[in-house]
Amino acid sequence: MKTLFLSLALLGSLATAAPAPGDQYTVIELRRYQVKPERRADFVTYFDTLFPEAFQQLGALALGQFTEPDVPDRYTWLRAFHDLDARAIVNGSFYYGPVWKEHRQQLNDLIIDNDDVLLLRPLDAAHAVPVLAAVDPVREAAGTHGIVVAQLFPVKPGSVERFTKLAAPAFDAYRAAGARDAGVLVTLDVKNNFPQLPVRSDGPFVVWLGILPDREDADNTLRPIAARAAASLAEGDLLRGQPQLLVLKPTPRSRLRWLDGKTAR
Predict the structure, then answer these.
(1) Which residues form a coiled coil (predicted)?
(2) Hey, which of 58, 96, 119, 244 has its CA 20 to 30 A from 227?
């Protein structure tokens, strides 16, 4: 019981009235779920309705929730914590708490696999994932706009710093093509401090995130540039596999989305 009381005290110190800036979230989970065929829309509705505020009240943040148009049964989201200790405390409080206990049956009945999880950190403060305002249910009654793109680079061990320097011109090219920067993340190489939720151990990875106005921009403009960049970066002998490009459609309540007239940061 002493451990529980200590955790709750620490949890109270983490919760804030408003989300912190992106650079104050130093631990990020990139979570990709496989849901049952033809049930993804139900999963989106449950998640968007029940969970963003639940995480925020515990001191964590759902930075963005997405479907993958190219993969019908995929659901992907980004969850952020202030630090590694906060990850253990918040996850413990949530998964042993009342919100998850009440709704876990509905969610678990829709999930086939939820173990595809990368444990990441921002490359540095300048490359943190931006914390955009929550979707305004009045001004954004139609939901979110835009497309988020994630490019996953499987980097050879010990090569993360060299690779990010080598990849910088490619990321500049993505920006020149109209993508707004939404962060560069790298594998957080630490022991999983909440083993009830598995994370992948096949890293390291470098993950670039960007936001575009629509799917046409992602497919016709960014995708060919990203393919050329991936081929060029592979020649540097710092990758241990082919990069993967994820095209992600924000769910109706995803913070990470295209906002007209505003930069991502």
Answers:
(1) none
(2) 119
Interstrand relation of 61-67 and 244-250 (parallel, antiparallel or unpaired): antiparallel
2-250 CATH pick, 3.30.360.10, 3.30.70.260, 3.30.70.100, 3.40.50.12780: 3.30.70.100
Q: State the amino acid at position 229 in one-letter form.
A: A
What does the pLDDT look like over 128-175, one tens digit per residue?
Answer: 999 999 999 999 999 999 999 999 999 999 999 999 999 999 999 999
Which residue has 């005290």 as its token pair? 9
Per-residue three-class SS string for the chain: CHHHHHHHHHHHHHCCCCCCCHHHCCEEEEEEEEECCCCHHHHHHHHHHHCHHHHHHCCCEEEEEEECCCCCCEEEEEEEECCHHHHHHHHHHHHCCHHHHHHHHHHHCCEEEEEEEEEEEECCHHHCCCCCCCCCCCCCCCCCCCEEEEEEEEECCCCHHHHHHHHHHHHHHHHHCCCEEEEEEEECCCCCCCCCCCCCCCCCEEEEEEEECCHHHHHHHHHHHHHHHHHHHHCCCCECCCCEEEEEEECCCCCCCCCCCCCCC
Distance CA 146, CA 220 (A): 14
The number of residues making up the chain comes to 265
| pLDDT tens-digit map of 70-120 | 999 999 999 999 999 999 999 999 999 999 999 999 999 999 999 999 999
Q: Where are the domains of the chain?
A: 2-250
